Amino acid sequence: MLQLKPNLLNFIKCEVGDGTTASFWYDNWTDFGQLITFLGVAGPSQLRVRRSAKVIEASRNGAWNLQAARSVSGQSLMVALTEYPVSEATCGPYIFLWRKASGNYSHTFSSKETWEQVRHRSLLVPWADIVWFKQHVPRYSFIAWLAMLNRLPTRDRLHRWGMNVPISCVLCSSGVESHAQIFFECPFATDLWGFLAAKFIPNPPYNLSAAASWIASLNSPLQANTTAILKLLLTSVLYHVWKKRNSRIFIDTAFTIHQLRIAIDRVMRDRLLSFMGPSLHSSLLLIYFSHVSHMSF
């Protein structure tokens, strides 16, 4: 089969039926794709088949009726057509089939299978399950994803882009604001993350990649619920640190570490309460409350 560039015609194929409706040149009914593309603009004159012809017009008396091939591509088509039955009135109307991931064609369309064929696959990053997990909050995970990729518009990046902005951290004023500094070298962020994460496992790492690896390492079945809580906690902290950073810059809103701890604790409780199914949310809530119920903010 000729390998064509990815486009819509690669994912649909026409069963010509009685041949009275399917286009000879423009419908994808052979393994060569569109014949006008395969043979070129000279194809209609070479085969003596007009550009607007239907498939039925390329046959006569139950056999293919085409001019002798004058190119390698034309010869390939002639050979291939010996495997295609000539259209008959009893064959019914034409239909379109959708290509599956297996390469076979089906009457039903699947957006998932089509997406799997067109997407560019990259190696799975080790922190993928830390950012995107079953209990995630979409807006929290989105900010966490950008943070992991170093794509948030931190002041050091804005400065490198040529923007005339201060480069000091707006949360602590003690260093150049970068992804590494704000997550979690900044004393404000360090205090927030360390205070909350240490309630579950002592001595949490104060580096974003290391924190993600640390959570991922807790992969035993007995630690599954704790891992889910820590994923939610990490993405919540990242989101709220970034949100408060923006609040200080754009609307000059003052807040304390105490207020932020309470805010994150509130969203953690609300999220854990929102899960459907008594066994899931009760077990997660039980673990969370067992660690923070006596916590002084």
Automatic annotation (TrEMBL):
The record ties this protein, via InterPro entries, to: RVT-Znf
The Reverse transcriptase zinc-binding domain sits at 109-193
Question: What name appears for this protein in its UniProt entry?
Answer: Uncharacterized protein LOC109127430
Q: Which organism is it from?
A: Camelina sativa
